[in-house]
Amino acid sequence: MSDIKRVVLAYSGGLDTSVILKWLQVTYGCEVVTFTADLGQGEELAPARAKAELMGVKPEHIYIDDLREEFVRDFVFPMMRANARYEGDYLLGTSIARPLISKRLIEIARETGADAVAHGATGKGNDQVRFELSAYALEPGIKVIAPWREWDLASRTALIAWAEAHQIPVPKDKRGESPFSTDANLLHTSSEGKVLEDPWQETPDYVYSRTVNPEDAPDTPEYITIDFEKGDGVALNGEAMSPATLLAALNDLGRKHGIGRLDLVENRFVGMKSRGMYETPGGEIYARAHRGIESITLDRGAAHLKDELMPKYAELIYNGFWFSPEREMLQAAIDHSQSRVNGTVRLKLYKGNASVVGRKSADSLYSERHVTFEDDAGAYDQKDAAGFIKLNALRLRLLAQRGQ
């Protein structure tokens, strides 16, 4: 890659990416363009600009983009239409953010005439795969630089020593052993490493940052409603909201009631198991509400097929194949299923739980007349069930007769 003249770096402004910025300048002798994405992580992003300028990045080559609405509208909501949960539990908060970051990296590379993009993911994790698969899918000829797979800075001590040798400020809180690492966006916060590496040990309470302890949550339940149109949330308690605004409001409710905590040992795409703690307060409420409205608006066949497709869809996102044809094929089927997923869901929020307690829709397939235990006025002839049962039992009876 000796011919690289300009590279776009996914830059947070933290110690790791600041070291990477300088390392790129020193190692490749190239110009660096920085890109910082506002995905609702709740951090002040202005310091990232100041740090980049301090390290010689031209002002016109410092990108700080507010992507919150695009993130929820074009990535989180389509994923939620599928009710996607990796390995049955994980709402894919980190996974779903990576294709958007990669998409913008490639766009900036085109705008600035860059030869390459760079990221700060390590060689042990999933993010390197997600970033790079997305980048290659969008720009097959792009060069990708992954410093953690190239340099010889094998420890945090070495990283800090290199930073000091190159006049990179090292915050005091970065000098000690970090108890765990975190990643955050509008959908979730994930924590892993150090105090979480022993899967037998309970997650310390200080690790949680986005939810109160359910035991300390209000003793009085709170009821809310979420309105859906074509499978997407459009209003909270009757108030119309944009996708990002709705998710942010649900995050506040989830924080208050201690909803959305998950302690998970998962299978990484690169082959190892890892233990992480995830907080997805608004996402957990939203996911339960979406299944609630689907329960009365989706036909059984469509609903069950969606549930069969979901693990594959979730695995594709987790493994970094958002821009693959198979994910797009599944998305088309899922989106088609949502055309009549309209209505309102009422939820009860109480001490870590978000329970669906009511649902209504003008497109409901629920027929009280058919299911009532009272007189159904001829809506359902119970005698029909006898033939239905006999036909379904035929092969079982033949199997049993053969055995006799």
UniProtKB/TrEMBL annotation:
SUPFAM superfamilies referenced in this protein's UniProt entry, alphabetically: Adenine nucleotide alpha hydrolases-like (SSF52402), Argininosuccinate synthetase, C-terminal domain (SSF69864)
Binding site for L-aspartate: 122, 126-127
Binding of L-citrulline, residues: 90, 95, 126, 130, 181, 190, 266, 278
Keywords associated with the record: Amino-acid biosynthesis, Arginine biosynthesis, ATP-binding, Cytoplasm, Ligase, Nucleotide-binding
InterPro entries: Arginosuc_syn_C, Arginosuc_syn_N, Arginosuc_synth, Arginosuc_synth_CS, Arginosuc_synth_type_1_subfam, AS_cat/multimer_dom_body, Rossmann-like_a/b/a_fold
Keyword ATP-binding part of the UniProt annotation: yes
Pathway as given in its UniProt record: Amino-acid biosynthesis; L-arginine biosynthesis; L-arginine from L-ornithine and carbamoyl phosphate: step 2/3
Any matching Pfam family: Arginosuc_syn_C
Ranges for domain Arginosuccinate synthase C-terminal: 180-397
MF (Gene Ontology): argininosuccinate synthase activity; ATP binding
Signal peptide: none
Ranges of biased composition (kind: Polar residues): 179-192
Cellular compartment(s): Cytoplasm
Residue span(s) of domain Arginosuccinate synthase-like N-terminal: 6-169
Gene Ontology CC entries for this record: cytoplasm
Entry EC number(s): 6.3.4.5
Main localization of the protein described in the UniProt heading: cytoplasm
Entry keyword annotation includes ATP-binding: yes
Family membership: Belongs to the argininosuccinate synthase family. Type 1 subfamily.
Assembly mode: Homotetramer.
UniProt name for this protein: Argininosuccinate synthase
